[in-house]
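Our preliminary data section would be incomplete without showing what the modeling component actually yields. Below, a chain of 217 amino acids is followed by its predicted structure, encoded as C-alpha cells that our downstream tools consume directly.
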Amino acid sequence: MRIAIIGGHGQIALQLTRLLSERGNEVLAVIRNAAHTGDVEAVGGQPVVLDLEGPGADELVAALSGVDAVVFAAGAGPGSGVERKYTVDRDGSVRLAEAAEKAGVRRFVQISTMGAGKPAAGGDEQWVAYIDAKTQAENDLRARDLEWTILRPGRLTNESATGQVLLSESVSAGSVPRADVAAVLAELLITGSAAGRVLELISGDTPIEAAVAAIAG
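Predicted structure:
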C-alpha cells in the first residue's frame, strides 16, 4: 500500500511509519519542518514538506496522488494556544478530508482522543478547546462519504509496547503506550478493518491482531 501520514514527525506517526515500512508499505510522511526529514527517513518514510496550515490546498491534493490511505496524525501539541487547537486539530483534519476526496483516496484514519464526542467535563480553556476541536473534526469526517475510521486512544505514555490492548466502541478511562497505538493503526490500515467505526483504545489483555479482527467481525 501507499499510505500518507499527515503530522509525520509526531511520536506515534514515526512509530507507525516504521511499522508500515517494515511490512513492505510505502509511507509518505507529510511534515512542516524540513529539518525533520532525517528522522522520517531513518524509520523508512519518504518526507513531504508541506504546511497543513498554509495556503497550498492544491499541493496537498497533489501529494495524495496515488495514495491508498491517509492518516491524520497532526496536532497542535501541548502548550499551543486555543486558536491552534482549531486551526490544526479541527481545520487540519477537515482540509485533509477535502483533499482526500479530491484525490480519490477513500480510506481515512483519524487519530482523535478519548473524551471527544461530547463537551469536555472540566479542564482549562485549552483542554476544552482541544476536546471541542477534536469533536468537530470527528463530526466532519463522519459526514463524509469516505471509508473512515476514528481512533480515540486513552492517556498516551512512552512505555514499551505490550502488544495487548482493549479496543472497543466504548471503554473506561485508561492509558496506552504510543507504540501500541501505532501498532493498532498499522493493523487497521493493512486489514482495512473498522470502516465507519469510532473506536476507543487503552491497554488490555487482547493481542492487537485479535483485537482488530474482533472489531472487524
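The radius of gyration is 16 Å. The first helix runs from residue 11 to 22. Preliminary results of this kind motivate Aim 1 of the renewal.
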